[in-house]
Amino acid sequence: MAYTDLPLGQTPPRSSPPPRRSSTVRIVIVVALCLAAGALLTMWWMSRTPAEPTSPTPVAATDVLDESNRPLRQPISLPSLDGSDALLRELVGVLADHPQLARLLATDGLVRGATLATIQIGEGRTPNRPMGVLRPERRVGIQGTDSGRVDPASYARWNAATTALTAVDPAELAQVYVNVKPLFDEAYREQGYPEGSFDDALVQAIDMLAATPTLEDDPVLIRRPDYYIHEDPKLRALRPVQKQFLLFGAENQARVMAWLRRFARALDLPTRR
To answer: Which is nearest to 16 in space by CA: 133, 115, 124?
Structure first.
């Protein structure tokens, strides 16, 4: 049996068929890419007309105008959730032109797939089913036989996905997300969160990834019959998705987190990190 990345360690999600086994770190990037496949019909536009006060009011020097970064939703007519794929495939090219996006958009159930992946990441699980088409051809390698540090060349497996994500402007994606958010909220309710907003799932997923430690050296992996485990007990104690995120490599990991933080700021999401 061929060696894969770390064990998935997950249970099937509610109201969802059993997932196919696949590598996970791709989801870190593709969650945002699925959101990017929304409905970018117009660019960022927002205007505000401040209310004219009836009488002058002194303002203290320490007073700060509390303004939101989050864009206003534009009046866009959305398709049904079941019929949303065609619109996403048609308009995603406006955001970025990348082979990874084209492969992703060839799949079905884009909004539901992104929603499920985001929920699973927020719970610390390794998502599989939605983004199997983005699995790298190369597998993780180690500098040794039975154990050894991760081969630095393995990190290049995620270079293309990282580039695809960071090619999308976070502010433009924030406008897209706000415009199509009703579709994600509907898919979120289907997964068993009737009172929740998909914003909550995004915050949990970003916080989960942000809690992944930054390593000074390449981690040491121990070979098992068909997977690897971390030698360091502290790393073994991490959640499955965090262990996979470490295999992204420090440089790609930093680029992904910087992009996700910019995206969160554009939406005023209350992330902890």
So the answer is: 115
CA–CA separation, 209 and 48 (whole Å): 35
Query: 190-210: per-residue pLDDT in tens?
Result: 999 998 899 999 999 999 999
First CA to last CA distance, the chain: 39
Whether 144 maps to a domain, the answer reads no
Q: What is the pTM of this model?
A: 0.75
Q: Is residue 169 part of a domain?
A: yes
Tokens coding 271: 């992330």
Domain residues for the domain of 113 are 25-42+77-137+155-214+240-266
Residue 143 included in any domain: no
Tokens at residue 46, please?
């927002």
The partner residues of 220 in beta bridges, in order of sequence, read 149
Structurally, the chain folds into a number of domains equal to: 1
Give CA separation, 188 vs 21, 81, 99, 126, in Å. Answer: 23, 11, 28, 18
Q: Residue 183, Cα to own-chain centre: how many angstroms?
A: 17
Q: Are 37 and 88 in contact (CB under 8 A)?
A: yes
Q: Are 256 and 28 in contact (CB under 8 A)?
A: yes
- Tokens standing for residue 155: 């990190």
Distances (CA, A) of 3 to 6, 148, 154, 155, 235: 9, 14, 13, 16, 20
Structure tokens at 82: 């079941």
Specify if 105 maps to a domain: yes
CA distance 273 to 263: 13
User: By CB neighbour count within 10 A (0-12 exposed, 13-18 middle, 19+ buried), where does 14 fall?
Assistant: exposed
**In the sheet that 220-223 helps form, which strands lie side by side, from edge to edge?**
147-149, 220-223, 228-230
Residues 85-110: tens digit of each pLDDT: 987 777 666 777 778 877 877 889 99
Contact between residue 88 and residue 105 where contact means Cβ atoms under 8 Å apart: yes
